[in-house]
């Protein structure tokens, strides 16, 4: 095999048995350069789970002894104190067994939360079965309280840890070094995504390209070319990446990919990631089914129809009514402030396009001067069909405040009650925007528009038009109730941080 690998020394070396011996001798060096924080991350998450389980035990015992719905029993504390130690240890073991401490589940996706819930339910079933078979005098009240509280606290703890991890990764900590492998075009696409989503913790150190590009020093995206694909082992030895990322077009056959994987099999800490030529598809729609040695990828149908089911409608209706019951004093106070500021109406009514192109009147607190529509022609749209300026002179003093915390959206709860909008969904577009939609963008109209959505929790007005469309289309095609709940939770932090709000 001809070696044209170029490293920092810039001298070419033959990938012969000498190179293999050099690779084996560098295993010790490999352990030294691996970031300690990445290896400690599962232990830190486990320590957080232990704290949550300990807190669960204290709360469950306290509620069992103090709540009037339970009978008083003098032996509750003695029986549960010993049992809780076993419960906690079993819970942690099963959390590890279900894979909740694997590095790939931290920081993104819903798999981590699903695994925590599954491990918790299995723990509850196992504990109940063993207590019954051993005839242990376990307090049923304690058992009923223990696991629901524990599941809730574990999920809260994981959510908090995820936010901390994402912030640390965005600041450059807990990052994993990535070596991209493939053609320059595909490498550029993957690099753009990884650079944009810095919270994923992937730091691209360079790339390997096919031999046709052997003379290339940098890709058009500015990524250093460290060699050709056949020299993947030499590049791993020299640069010690945490992840070797094979993009589409990286290999010409499955046999080549298998041989490249064999070259890396003695690097136990290197993760191999293969990106198929499929993007913006959630894991819930993907099924891998091995058939005759072929890992066939089955893609489920778009979930846009599920996003209009009765369960989501019931959730929207109950959620909107509950929120209205909680925030109506604040809403009334802000409406009076807007009204008294310049004497204009408190509410701003604007025609928006809803599901299947049906127009409706969208309600918002007025954040601009009453002649804002007439002054629109004085300003230039700055981002495709989506117009929202950070320094718009038409915004009033109250408007700046209510926009900062998205209070102007609260009247849309009435649109949700009326069935014209949803709590979570794509951004409700103007008719003028829809007229400029391309065919792909029209899929945004397959579901009800939302008060919040992926665009809201990903940067709001700081996003480009292309990113807004991409996020909305992803939501339409990959809807799930779990995703809605996560978006609502992230909305709270996005609003408090005022990211992209103007």
TrEMBL record:
Enumerate the InterPro entries for this protein. Answer: Bact_transf, EPS_sugar_tfrase
Primary location group: membrane
Q: Where are the transmembrane segments?
A: 40-61, 81-101, 113-135, 141-160, 314-338
Domain Bacterial sugar transferase: from-to ranges: 312-496
Q: Where is this region: Disordered?
A: 1-28
- Key words, A-Z: Membrane, Transferase, Transmembrane, Transmembrane helix
Membrane topology category = Multi-pass membrane protein
Any one GO molecular-function label of the UniProt entry: transferase activity
- Pfam families for the chain: Bac_transf (PF02397), CoA_binding_3 (PF13727)
Its subcellular locations are: Membrane
Q: Does the keyword Endoplasmic reticulum apply?
A: no
Q: What is the designated name of this protein?
A: Sugar transferase
Q: Which organism is it from?
A: Nocardioides hwasunensis
């Amino acid at each position: 095999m001809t070696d044209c690998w170029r490293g920092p020394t810039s001298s070419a070396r033959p990938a012969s048995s000498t190179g293999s011996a050099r690779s084996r001798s560098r295993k010790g060096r490999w352990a030294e350069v691996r970031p300690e924080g990445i290896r400690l991350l599962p232990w830190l998450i486990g320590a957080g789970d232990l704290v949550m389980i300990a807190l669960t035990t204290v709360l469950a015992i306290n509620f069992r002894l103090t709540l009037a719905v339970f009978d008083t029993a003098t032996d509750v504390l003695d029986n549960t104190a010993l049992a809780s130690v076993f419960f906690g240890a079993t819970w942690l073991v099963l959390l590890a067994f279900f894979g909740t401490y694997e590095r790939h589940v931290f920081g993104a996706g819903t798999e981590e939360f699903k695994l925590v819930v599954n491990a918790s339910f299995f723990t509850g079933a196992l504990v109940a079965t063993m207590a019954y078979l051993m005839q242990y005098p376990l307090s049923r009240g304690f058992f009923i309280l223990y696991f629901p509280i524990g599941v809730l606290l574990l999920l809260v703890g994981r959510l908090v840890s995820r936010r901390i991890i994402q912030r640390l990764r965005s600041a450059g900590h807990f990052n994993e070094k990535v070596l991209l492998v493939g053609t320059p075009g595909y490498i550029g696409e993957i690099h753009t995504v990884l650079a944009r989503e810095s919270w994923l913790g992937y730091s691209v150190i360079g790339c390997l390209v096919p031999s046709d590009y052997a003379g290339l020093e940098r890709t058009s995206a500015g990524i250093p070319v460290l060699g050709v694909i056949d020299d993947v082992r030499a590049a791993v030895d020299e640069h010690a990446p945490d992840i070797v990322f094979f993009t589409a077009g990286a290999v010409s056959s499955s046999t080549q990919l298998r041989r490249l994987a064999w070259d890396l099999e003695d690097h136990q800490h290197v993760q191999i990631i293969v990106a198929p030529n499929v993007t913006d598809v959630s894991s819930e729609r993907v099924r891998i089914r091995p058939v005759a040695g072929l890992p066939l990828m089955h893609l489920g149908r778009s979930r846009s129809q599920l996003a209009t089911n009765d369960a989501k409608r019931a959730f929207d209706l109950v959620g909107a009514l509950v929120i209205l019951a909680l925030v109506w004093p604040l809403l009334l106070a802000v409406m009076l402030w807007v009204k008294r500021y310049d004497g204009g109406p408190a509410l701003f009514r604007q025609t928006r396009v809803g599901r299947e192109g049906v127009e409706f009147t969208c309600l918002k607190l007025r954040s601009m001067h009453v002649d804002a529509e007439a002054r629109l022609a004085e300003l230039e749209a700055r981002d495709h069909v989506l117009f929202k300026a950070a320094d718009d002179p038409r915004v009033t003093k109250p408007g700046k405040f209510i926009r900062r915390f998205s209070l102007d959206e609260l009247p849309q709860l009435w649109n949700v009650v009326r069935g014209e909008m949803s709590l979570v969904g794509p951004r409700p577009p103007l008719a003028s925007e829809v007229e400029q939609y391309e065919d792909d963008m029209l899929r945004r109209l397959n579901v009800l528009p939302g008060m919040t959505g992926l665009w809201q929790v990903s940067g709001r007005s700081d996003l480009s038009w292309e990113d807004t469309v991409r996020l909305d289309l992803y939501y339409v095609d990959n809807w799930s109730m779990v995703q809605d709940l996560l978006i609502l939770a992230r909305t709270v932090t996005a609003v408090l941080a005022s990211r992209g709000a103007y």
